[in-house]
Every structure is written in C-alpha cells, then in structure tokens.
Amino acid sequence: MIRKATLFALLSGAPSLLHAQSAHDMHDMATMPPVAPAANASMDAMPHDMVGMDHAMAMRGLLGQYGMTREASGTSWQPESSPMMGVMVPAGDWMAMVQGSATLVTDHQGGPRGSDKTFSQSMLMGMASHPIGDRGTLGLRAMVSLDALMGRRGYPLLFATGETANGREELVDRQHPHDLFMELAASYAHDLGNGRGLYLYAGLPGEPALGPPAFMHRISGMDDPEAPITHHWFDSTHITFGVVTAGFSTATWKIEGSAFKGREPDQRRWDLESPKLDSWSVRAFWNPTANVSFQVSTGYLHSPEQLHPDQNEQRTTASVSYNRLLGNGSNWASTIAWARKDERPGPALTGWLAETSLRLRRRHILFARAEHVQEAELFDSGPLHHDVIPVSKLSTGYAYELPVGKAPVRLALGGVASAYAYPDRIKPAYGRAGVKSFMLFARLRLADAIG
Q1: Which of 415, 6, 30, 423 is nearest to 226 (CA)?
Q2: Do you find a cis peptide bond into 345, omega within 30 degrees of 0?
Q3: With contact defined as beta carbons under 8 Å apart, do 117 and 156 qualify?
Q4: Which residues contact 132 (CB under 8 A, 6 or more apart)?
Q5: What is the pTM of this model?
Q6: Three-class SS state of 363
Q7: How sure is the predictor about 438, in pLDDT bands with cuts at 50, 70 and 90?
Q8: Residue extents of the structural domains in the chain
Q9: What one-character DSSP code corresponds to residue 290?
Q10: Closest by alpha carbon to 117, among 148, 150, 147?
Q11: Residue-wise pLDDT tens digits, 355-380
C-alpha cells in the first residue's frame, strides 16, 4: 500500500516533493514491466538528452500495454513521443508520479466588453499504479485546483461562454474557474496478450470518452495561459461529476464508451456534486506511429447547461495531434480539431481549432492558436439575442523557461497577444476588430522531461 506520507504528497504538493527522484532514477523499475515501443517508433524519437524520456516511454500505461507517455487526460491518448512532465515518487511496489503547475497572470481584454484582472491558475495531479497478479493494473488518479480563488466569475476572456457565476446569469466574455476537485478516479486494466487489453475507469469527478485531451493537458496547448474559446465545443466535459468508461485497446488503436453526468459543474466550486449517469459517448483513437494520434467521438449530453435545463446536446468531434522530439531539449507539438454542437432545441454550432507549440533548447517556447466558432450566447437580450455569430481568434505567444536551482521545478516568464475577426453587427458591443487583448504570466511547473 502507498504510505500515508506519499498520499499526502500526491494530493497536497508538499515541499519535500521537490526533492523526489526524477524519472531517470525511479525506484524499483521492475514493478512496471517494459512494453514494446509504439508501431514505427524509432530511437531517433527518444534522444538521450531527454531526461528519463527513454525510461518513461518504456513503462506501461495505466490502461494498456503501451508506453505511459501515450496517456493524457481521463482515458484519452496523445502521441506516444509526447514529453512526460512531472516527478516520479518512490512508493514501494507502487509507481507514483506528480504533475503540477501554478501560474500568475495579468490579463487585459480590450473593447467595451473587456476588462482587466490579475489572477492565479493552478493544478496538482497525482497518479499511482500497482500490478494485480500477472495481467492486471490498478490505477489511481487525483487532480485538484485552487482556481476558485480567482472568484466565481473567473477571468476576462473575450467571446468565451459557458456555465454560470451565480446560478442566475450566464458567463459571457469570461472563462469560468475550475473546481477544487478536477478528478478523483480509479481504473483497472487487464492484459489480454499480444498488445490487447480491456479497461474500466470510474470517476467522481472524472472525464468521459468525448473529444481530444483537455486543453490544459495537450502538449500543443498547455503553455498558453488562455483557455480556448472553443472549450465548450471540445472538452467542457473534462470535469464530470459521475463517469464510468469501458474500453478495448490494441497496440495502435482503441475504442471506448462512457456513461456520465451531462450537467456541467455548478457555481459552487469547492464541493463534490451528486453523481448521475444520464448521458453517453463513444470514442475511438488510432496511433499509427509514435508521433501521431487521431481521434473521433460523439456523445449525447443531457441538460448540460444549468440555466437551460430543457436543452440537450449531441456533440461530435474529430482531431489529430502530432508530436516530434527534435533533440537538444527541443520538441514540436500540434493539434487540429473540429467539433459540432447540435443543441436540441436550438441551432447546430460548429467550431475548429489549430494550435502549435515549439520548445527550443530547453529555454524558448513559441506557441500559437487559431480558432473559429459559431456563437449563439453572446447576447441575452435585444435584436442579437440567440443570433448565430461567427468569431475568429488568433493568439501568439512566447515564454522563456529556466530551472529553479536544483529542485525539479522550472520557471517560465512569457506573454500572449490575441487578435479577433467578427461581423460588423457586433462592433457596437465589442469595438473594432484586430488585436484586442494580451496576457503576461509567470509559471512554476514541476520538472519536465525536456528540462
């Protein structure tokens, strides 16, 4: 069993954790049998200067017979060559790992509906696994956030919509804060041999099998402090209070299905909500090489919006992610995704996203994100009420990252600026199009594999 001190470190991020062993020095590698590399993977994708990266890619994932670097948020997949960010913790017969970050952001959103705010974002995630017999693996995951400290109205973000601050009014041009408990989940995976496996995942909260990996876990997007305005098209279900997922995987593909609670989290961010399984989803992934991951999914969400309880939604998504280790501490990751929200009753709204992140020589991070959405929630009254309004956004940013002494922590200092395009009919509300917003940020993150 994991010692109480280890569990406390996983969930609270105690300072002593900063001196835990890295992936390269992980205790008792024999507890996690090695697996074969992904199809068409080559040693060129695993340069020796990536600290612990060769070990991480050889360790078994929680849900299947493949490298643990393939696993992203919930039960989703990403390219197996993706850097593994976090710190390994010695835990006896268990394999334990902690990931986490804390970011201080100064936010300026321009125009008549914009505003300014300085706030903090944070996330701490602990994962642990233990073999059960010769073919089973028990997995535990816990993720917490102190985002609720920024206030119920979250932070200013032009054209972001979804959820509520007070149970009476919709959040518009604001990004809602995350709940204290983002994931409390357990899983069991059973090896069927020849790279095949079955798994069962359950969480309160957890993430169902719908959409690509959540934006704060995507390698291509995690360096951008802004949430995508397409968040409620792709991954708004990443905190779901009640989810059960079952799946079957092979060495290169998997199919899975979920029953989950369709209602999004309410405005009370510090509690656990009652579970309900009133919605469903199915999803398939295909990873033909270590550098590529394809995803398609569809799901029925029962009454997702608290303020529109009689409205349901059929959501369909498709995405492709690419990652390539470039050597010398460099990495390039990109994602392209499309989604359609068919609101019932209501319009069918589409959105797409393209984002990329280039890390150069352990220090320089360049990132960009382009988005386009059809919005129908920007105006709660007047002649534009429920009009479907197309909005495009382009964000570009840079961060300089460096280690913090000998601790497995890295500090990044950076900024991002965003430009928008939208129809003339909403310019009285939003002002002229073009560059309208920027963020400056300082981020601390537990050491990553390319540091």
Answers
A1: 415
A2: yes
A3: yes
A4: 138, 188
A5: 0.86
A6: coil
A7: very high
A8: 4-446
A9: T
A10: 150
A11: 999 999 889 999 999 999 999 999 98
